[in-house]
Inverse folding.
């Protein structure tokens, strides 16, 4: 299995994290993002959106970190990270959507501005972070894990940009339940340190 990867990317880290936690071997292919390798063939043929990560497994090519998490968990993780029942899958999917929408447009966006100089509206990203972090903290006040009472790919999807939030000048100190959850994720066997 080949993962076209960018080491500092939280979305690529999601996939590497699940692989580490699941003891899956990935052949990491570092992409020269700064020079636009992802926007040229053969990578642009693999993902016409010109984004990373890209997973290549046999004849299957997948883009989007959330889709890759579902595939890896379902194909190789047994029931450990992705349950067989629809209710559990739906609970997990709502957190994957949260990661791909609310977290991307707040914590990720703020980090992109602060760490990489992207031309995004940082004040809007920080305002959105101030709206979503209390929601996450309140959920974690009632639940040890995001979905179905145990670690799942929901953790792999949400954890990276929350853990990296300080790089976007987002203070997590007001959110003790989030901080406790981060510690629980980092204590999982096989945990891979964040970039």
């Amino acid at each position: 299995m080949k993962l076209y990867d960018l080491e500092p990317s939280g979305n690529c880290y999601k996939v590497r994290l699940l692989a580490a936690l699941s003891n899956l071997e990935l052949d990491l292919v570092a992409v020269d993002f700064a020079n636009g390798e992802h926007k040229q063939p053969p990578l642009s043929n693999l993902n016409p959106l010109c984004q990373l990560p890209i997973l290549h497994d046999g004849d299957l090519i997948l883009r989007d970190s959330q889709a890759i998490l579902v595939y890896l968990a379902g194909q190789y993780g047994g029931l450990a990270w992705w349950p067989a029942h629809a209710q559990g899958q739906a609970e997990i999917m709502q957190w994957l959507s949260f990661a791909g929408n609310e977290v991307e447009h707040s914590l990720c966006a703020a980090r992109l501005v602060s760490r990489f100089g992207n031309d995004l509206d940082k004040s809007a990203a920080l305002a959105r972070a101030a709206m979503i972090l209390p929601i996450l903290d309140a959920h974690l006040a009632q639940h040890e894990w995001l979905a179905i009472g145990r670690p799942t790919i929901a953790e792999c999807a949400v954890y990276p940009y929350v853990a990296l939030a300080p790089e976007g000048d987002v203070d997590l100190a007001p959110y003790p339940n989030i901080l406790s959850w981060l510690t629980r994720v980092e204590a999982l066997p096989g945990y891979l340190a964040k970039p």
Observations:
- The chain has seven helices and four strands.
- The CA atoms of residues 5 and 91 lie 28 Å apart.
